Inverse folding.
């Protein structure tokens, strides 16, 4: 029989106050299997760990129960103690008598009784624990980055600079994301394109980066370190290798389409380059709007193209890649402005979104950076910005703060004042949140020097009166209704996960929170990792954040991916399923229950086999097995039954 | 006579409900001490035979805690558990047991309060039902 050592921690007074550790030590001394038992004030401390090590040596222990805090805290600490004492780490069981006992009960009698049961179940489980060794697998030293915004670009560059291959997948015809649409960036007011385009060029020229635009993730199989990825790339009607960017095709194209890059404020043709600095620098044929595909109704661009770069018969392709780590940088979209009909967006051309105003302010935008209002091209003399449009409104819209709107709205107001000196900006706000580095100074300077009028309150309605837009709301400082006349109204829309990210998340089988943003493995200590091994999170896919935070998080995600890619092997938990060949009847009920395809019927032996690398150890197959042939390592039916019997005995 | 103190086995999945139980602890939420936890990686590891064994060995109630629908760490384990529990409850009725002695709840890692409340409710409920009768399998 195993010689088990039991070590009961006081955790200062955290356990000792509700669990009589001395009494338990005496009572369990003679429990079958227990060769040694001791209690100590802090088992996790250095002297505590040494107590365990000494006892293992002196009493020839080959199994250890530590009755202490939750295994999430110190299981690995004590596993290391066992390893250092030449014991297999799977000969450790943690009896969780703090979080699940002493902290949730008041009465010392009750606490001691429950702790006794918890420790006994741990002893019973440990008696049948096998020594296990992690299953190892090689690592494919290549990363997949999904999304070509600033976060994806930064992560891709960091990994590629670290010496590993990167595959980037971007849905749109060019990388650059939302950042390339922005005018200038707070709080430094440097031009967004000026700081982003060099990175885009660096990415396109990097020898370690392969870029697929117009592409989406079709499927992903496998497991951490060894993913098989299928990427669907839309048909490339314009061959980037042949296209010489002469722009002749655009000139002859008869179709006009609202320009997505300009947030619908301008027009583009059905064959177009998204913006002059697009990467890859090539034209895209918009198949939904092109007349030339079927039947051949047009064909003007192909006739005109002297480089013979246009091929109407191009087909979409599926690209297969083997990948070790995945960075998810799928970005954000604005909260649908149609959800706030009282603001009149769509009805009044002079009510626009914050991203549209970015395009108006941008030197590459539809107005060349001059501020005119969309309806009649008039220079707006009074402009109203509405912060928290769709944000911080749990009853009607988004409950959360979109984090960047306070700062970009102020930036908008400043840039407006810099262009139109006699203009008057008004900002409706709930609070001003300026928590970043040099953000508060940015606010103070604007308030004291730029003449921006802040009105604390929420806008109820926006309507038109003659030439003017009337913004009606409540000034919550004076408690009075307020109406502001404006030539142009800019809605600072909240942020939601990007369109399509919902389906993508389903494809990747990674978790999101209730808002649809990707869930981190731990909100404080593992903010750039998904709970699903091998997936790392960057940028606004995880929650609203500004550019500096996105870039830092992307570099964080990249460094986590680099840790994985620089390992020669990854180790997989050996707590997995196995099959007793003598009991298996080959009924294959278990095969259907496995979500990972880890079970397969061996056609020769007619018993089911488990792929150790694919098995995640959920145990769904084990409880489905009618003959008890399927078992889980170190959580067998016998072990569970023995634990149940302890609890049923009540002693 | 001493008050009836039910014996309850709680099977909790590691990812959601076990973490939720830990959170109840770190938040110092108090609940009755009757439930003793067995940690599984997924609620779908719980074999109906474990539930039957617990009840036949003298446990008065069995609680299974898993991740919310759509949140299962193993994609669909909780749905399998749900189906098994529905069937198992019918078996319990046929054995002459009140099927509410078996309870399945979705409790996430952030729902410490829900875990504590559920433990309290379930313990009170089993107290009202009284000790488990001997199961007659003949």
């Amino acid at each position: 029989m195993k010689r088990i050592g039991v070590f009961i921690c006081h955790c200062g007074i955290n356990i000792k106050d509700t669990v009589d550790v001395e009494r338990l030590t005496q009572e369990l001394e003679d429990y079958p299997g227990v060769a040694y038992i001791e209690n100590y004030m802090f088992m996790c401390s250095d002297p505590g760990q040494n107590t365990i090590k000494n006892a293992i040596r002196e009493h020839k222990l080959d199994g250890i129960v530590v009755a202490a805090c939750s295994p999430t805290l110190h299981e690995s600490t004590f596993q290391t103690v066992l390893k250092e004492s030449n014991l297999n780490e799977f000969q450790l069981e943690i009896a969780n008598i703090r979080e699940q006992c002493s902290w949730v009960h008041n009465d010392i009698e009750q606490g001691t009784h429950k702790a006794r049961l918890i420790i006994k179940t741990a002893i019973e489980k440990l008696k049948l624990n096998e020594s296990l060794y992690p299953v190892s697998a090689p690592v494919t030293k290549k990363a997949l980055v999904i999304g070509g915004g600033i976060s994806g670009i930064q992560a891709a560059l960091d990994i590629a600079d670290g010496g590993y291959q990167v595959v980037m997948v971007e849905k749109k015809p060019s990388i650059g994301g939302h950042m390339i649409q922005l005018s200038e960036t707070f709080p430094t007011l440097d031009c967004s394109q000026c700081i982003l385009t060099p990175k885009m060029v660096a990415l396109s020229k990097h020898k370690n980066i392969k870029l697929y635009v117009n592409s989406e993730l079709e499927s992903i199989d496998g497991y951490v370190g060894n993913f098989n990825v299928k990427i669907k790339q839309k048909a490339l009607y314009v061959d980037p290798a042949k296209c010489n960017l002469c722009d002749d095709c655009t000139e002859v194209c008869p179709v006009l389409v609202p320009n997505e890059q300009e947030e619908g404020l301008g027009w583009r043709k059905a064959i177009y380059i998204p913006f002059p600095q697009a990467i890859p620098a090539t034209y895209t044929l918009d198949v939904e709007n092109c007349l030339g595909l079927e039947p051949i109704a047009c064909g003007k661009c192909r006739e005109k193209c002297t480089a013979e770069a246009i091929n109407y018969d191009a087909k979409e392709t599926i690209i297969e890649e083997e990948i070790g780590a995945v960075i998810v940088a799928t970005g954000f979209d604005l909260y649908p402005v149609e959800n706030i009909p009282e603001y009149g967006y769509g009805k009044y051309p002079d009510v626009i979104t914050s991203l549209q105003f970015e395009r108006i302010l941008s030197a590459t935008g539809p107005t060349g950076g001059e501020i005119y209002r969309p309806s009649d091209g008039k220079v707006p003399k009074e402009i109203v910005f509405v912060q928290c449009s769709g944000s911080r409104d749990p009853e009607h819209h988004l409950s959360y703060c979109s984090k960047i709107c306070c700062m970009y709205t102020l930036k908008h107001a400043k840039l407006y004042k810099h262009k139109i000196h006699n203009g008057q900006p008004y900002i409706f706000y709930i609070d001003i949140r300026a928590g970043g580095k040099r953000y508060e100074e940015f606010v103070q300077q604007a308030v004291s020097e730029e003449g921006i009028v802040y009105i604390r309150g929420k806008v109820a309605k926006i309507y038109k009166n003659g030439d003017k837009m009337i913004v009606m709301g409540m000034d919550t400082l004076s408690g009075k209704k307020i109406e502001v006349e404006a030539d142009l109204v800019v809605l600072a829309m909240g942020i939601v996960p990007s369109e399509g990210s919902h389906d993508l998340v389903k494809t990747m089988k990674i978790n999101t929170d209730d808002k649809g943003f990707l869930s981190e493995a731990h909100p404080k200590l593992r903010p750039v990792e998904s709970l699903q091994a091998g997936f790392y999170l960057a940028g606004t896919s995880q929650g609203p954040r500004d550019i500096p935070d996105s870039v830092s998080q992307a570099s964080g995600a990249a460094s986590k991916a680099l840790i994985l890619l620089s390992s020669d092997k990854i180790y997989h938990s050996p707590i997995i399923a196995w099959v007793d060949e003598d009991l298996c009847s080959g009924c294959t009920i278990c095969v259907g229950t496995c979500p990972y395809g880890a079970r397969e019927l061996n056609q020769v032996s007619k018993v089911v086999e488990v792929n150790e690398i694919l098995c995640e150890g959920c145990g769904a197959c084990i409880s489905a097995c009618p003959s008890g042939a399927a078992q889980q390592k170190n959580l067998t039916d016998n072990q569970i039954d023995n634990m149940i019997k302890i609890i049923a005995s009540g002693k | 006579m001493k008050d009836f103190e039910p014996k309850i086995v709680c099977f909790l999945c590691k990812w959601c409900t076990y973490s939720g139980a830990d959170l109840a602890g770190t938040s110092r939420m108090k609940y009755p001490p009757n439930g003793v936890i067995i940690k599984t990686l997924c609620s779908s590891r719980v074999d109906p035979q474990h539930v039957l064994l617990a009840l036949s060995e003298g446990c008065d109630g069995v609680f299974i805690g898993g991740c919310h629908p759509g949140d299962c760490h193993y994609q669909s384990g909780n749905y399998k558990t749900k189906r098994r529990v529905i069937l198992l409850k019918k078996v319990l009725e046929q054995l002459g047991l009140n099927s509410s002695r078996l309870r399945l709840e979705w409790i996430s890692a952030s729902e410490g309060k829900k875990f504590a409340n559920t433990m309290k409710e379930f313990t009170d409920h089993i107290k009202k039902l009284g000790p488990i009768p001997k199961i007659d399998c003949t």
Remarks:
- Chain B has a mean pLDDT of 93.
